[in-house]
Write a structure and sequence with these properties.
The chain is of the alpha/beta class. The protein has one domain: DsrEFH-like (Hypothetical Protein Ychn, Chain: A). It has four helices and five strands; from the N terminus they run βαβαβαβαβ. The chain has a five-stranded parallel beta sheet with strand order 4-3-2-1-5, with helices on both faces. Helix 3 links the parallel strand 3 and strand 4. Helix 1 packs parallel to helix 2.
Length: about 120
Amino acid sequence: MRLLFIINDAPYGSEKAYNAFRLVMTLQKEHTDVEIWIFLMADAVTCALPGQKTPDGYYNLERMLKGMINKGAQIKACGTCADARGLRELKFVEGVEISTMSQLAQWVVEADRVLTF
């Protein structure tokens, strides 16, 4: 089964991205045969920026992202969204690729389920 997660919200301030990542991590732990695709859009592209410093005891989406990548998740960030935020030239977490709406459209067609956060 292929699951596509489309995340639109900023990494901090709301818990939408955090909750999406929690679900992905649980799926990766409990259902290892599931293929995970994550597409970061709008302010969610900032989830893929390295060097996130959060207070002790607070979740850190960069660490979560790296763990998901290490377990096989494919993660792409919207190039138009990155451009709009002046992020295109910045380095993203290793394993995250800048992508396009065409790629997202392809994933939507190929996914068995699409979840949005």
